[in-house]
Specification:
single chain, alpha/beta, 3-stranded antiparallel β-sheet, binds pantoate
Length: 279
């Protein structure tokens, strides 16, 4: 695996690859890789000749008081996993490379960036779209793969790519779950043994809510009951919303393509998950 930490060296390597007609796949990450990330690499590999992963803990997507400082940094272990998975290129820029002195620009997708996770995490999605746009400009991939666990992030990135006419095929990979249903996340590492036993309740409640929507029960009541179930399980719900899967607006009775989005606090972690379905 080739490793680059400067924009110039990565660009010049990728230019050579593109000149040979190679198709570039890209998986941006913040590191502390788990099976979920590796499934993104696998998907990118099946669609391209050269797979580029990036590891960059992006400061602009952390709100004040969040876990930027303690976000797990496990570069050596990540490199081993990427090599095992057959990743071809790793980009590990420094903060001053991605945000050089004097930079002034932020990329912001209006409306949907302020909903749900955006409402609780001020400026979070502007940080995400800014860094993903920069990374797309550096790598210029043919295809980029993102996990479906971050459903709102994916919707916002798709909107940015469409609005800014960025020539990349943005693909979603299915959420990678443990056998007990818990969606894999680097933030699960903050959970104690006891909390790890509680966390699978999130997916169980999502599955219950999906069945309840399909049984035509009142959506407002389902949202209310789901929050109560989260509390009962030992979680502190941030939000639980039944939405249209494309617009992310509250679902109406006529909508058929739905997603249920949830965020809940557990110990030191804020966990998110979702479930998509048709009715
Ligand atoms: O999903 C993530 O890990 C991050 O938000 C991303 C897309 C790598 C941008 O920093």
């Amino acid at each position: 695996m080739q490793i680059f930490d400067t924009i110039e060296s990565l660009r010049s390597y990728l230019l050579q690859q593109k000149q040979q007609g190679k198709r570039i796949g890209f998986v941006p990450t913040m590191g502390n890789l788990h099976q979920g990330h590796l499934s993104l690499i696998k998907q990118a590999k099946s669609q391209s000749d050269v797979v580029v992963a990036s590891i960059f803990v992006n400061p602009t997507q952390f709100s004040v008081g969040e876990d930027l400082e303690r976000y797990p940094r496990t570069l050596e272990q990540d490199q081993t996993l990427l090599i095992e998975q057959g990743c071809d290129v790793l980009f590990i820029p420094e903060v001053q490379t991605m945000y050089p002195k004097g930079e002034l620009t932020r990329v912001s997708v209006k409306k949907i960036s302020n909903l749900y996770c955006g409402a609780s995490r001020d400026g979070h999605f502007n940080g995400v779209t800014t860094i993903v746009c920069k990374l797309f400009n550096i790598v210029q991939p043919d295809v980029a793969v993102f996990g479906s666990k971050d459903f709102q992030q994916l919707a916002i990135i798709r909107q940015m790519v469409k609005d800014l006419m960025i020539p990349v095929d943005v693909q979603a990979a299915p959420t990678y779950r443990a056998d007990n249903g818990l969606a894999l996340s680097s933030r699960n590492g903050y959970l104690t043994e006891e909390e790890l036993a509680i966390a699978p309740a999130i997916y169980q409640i999502l599955t219950w809510a999906k069945a309840s929507v399909q049984n035509k029960q009142s959506q407002a009541q389902i949202e209310k009951d789901a929050q109560a179930k989260l509390v009962q399980a030992g979680l502190r719900p941030d939000y639980f919303h039944i939405c249209h899967a494309d617009t992310l607006q509250a679902a109406t009775d006529e909508d058929t393509h739905l997603v249920i989005l949830v965020a809940a606090y557990l110990g030191k972690a804020r966990l998110i998950d979702n479930i998509t379905f048709e009715i």
